[in-house]
Amino acid sequence: MADEPTEIAVLNELIAKHIGEHVADVDIRFDAPNAQEAPTTPTLHLFMYLIHEDLSIRQSMQNSYNPQTATYDTAYARIRCLYLATYWDSSSGDASSPDTQASSQTILKLTETLRALLCMRRHDDFKNYQIRVIEPEALNSLGNFWQALDNKPRAIINFAVTLPVSIVHPATPAEAGQPILETIMQTTQQSAAVLEKLEQLLFNRLVAALGNTSAARTQLAKVAVHVAPLPASDDDTVQNIQVIVTGVTQDANLAALNTAITAWSGESLDQDGQTLLLSEVTSTLAAAALTPPTN
Fold it and tell me: How distant, in Å, are the alpha carbons of 168, 272, 280 from that of 265?
């Protein structure tokens, strides 16, 4: 059984695929160039010379819960891979060589490579990667690199790719959670006008419970009725409603008001062609010695 490719191997395959779509007629290799063995065909070397954790990205790496497997998703770290891209042609190096011209194959192929890297930033294949074309700041000096290339400097492109890498040990079992057997999504939509109309209707019932007079409204000045939609019931035509009555009132009114409010529980009301079920009714009314205003 073949080993699964690692995250960096998958990245290299994607890079080779996309650069190959932009840069024609070249071999793409990921090993270090060898100046003593000139390639027999035009070759683009993408030499990865450094791998390190990218601490410049301050991004939450919390793992999320997967309800299908009843486990938490794998935790990741952000790893940065740095590459040096160099182009090698099989042409000779004399003054008449095409490689000495302003529009040499080296310039053309590296320009196409640069364009490919910039286009990769916008491609869906790289949505989980961060690609940057940068100065080779990780190399204190390019002298060692040129020395390895027989002291013949060449044009290079230095680019970095940051990618997520799993930080779960292979021998560590997945963190299990409570399995979710069914997911039910319910959307409740009620216009503010319908809710306000219902609040006014229920408040008027409280006024009626106290005799339906102007004095009754005055005594309810510090009483409010709040309604809110609840998750839909099995019947799509019925909307569950929560009712909360709050405030203070005279002690003499408390019993009558509580009796009226208790009777609302489970009542169905028709509002604008929809059935509203008062499924949760709560009262937090308090008694107080209120002094009615004088005329």
Answer: 53, 20, 6
Provide the pLDDT for residue 102.
Answer: 77
- In this predicted structure, what is the pLDDT of residue 175? 54
153: which 2 tokens? Answer: 């400097």
Residue 44 contacts by C-beta under 8 Å, 6 or more apart in sequence? 19, 23, 26, 27, 28, 29, 85, 86, 87, 88, 109, 113
Q: What single-letter DSSP state applies at residue 184?
A: -
Are 111 and 23 part of one and the same domain?
A: yes
Is there a domain that residue 268 lies in? yes
- Nearest to 86, CA basis, from 159, 12, 13, 157: 157
Q: Which residues, listed in sequence order, are joined to residue 83 by a DSSP beta bridge?
A: 48, 159
Q: pLDDT of 173-221, one tens digit each?
A: 655 555 555 544 444 455 677 888 888 899 999 999 998 888 888 888 8
Domains identified in the chain, total number: 2
3-state secondary structure at position 162: strand
Say whether both 196 and 280 belong to one domain: yes
- The domain of 50 spans 7-166
Residues 102, 39 share a domain: yes
Examine the domain organization and report whether 245 and 145 are in the same domain.
no
SS3 226: strand
Tell me, what's the pLDDT at 55?
79
Which tokens belong to 201? 């209707």
Task: Please report whether residue 284 resides in a domain.
Answer: yes
Residue with tokens 């009796």: 259
- What global pTM score does this model have? 0.52
User: Which residues, in sequence order, are CB contacts of 237 under 8 Å at separation 6+?
Assistant: 274, 275
| Residues 232 and 160 occupy one common structural domain | no
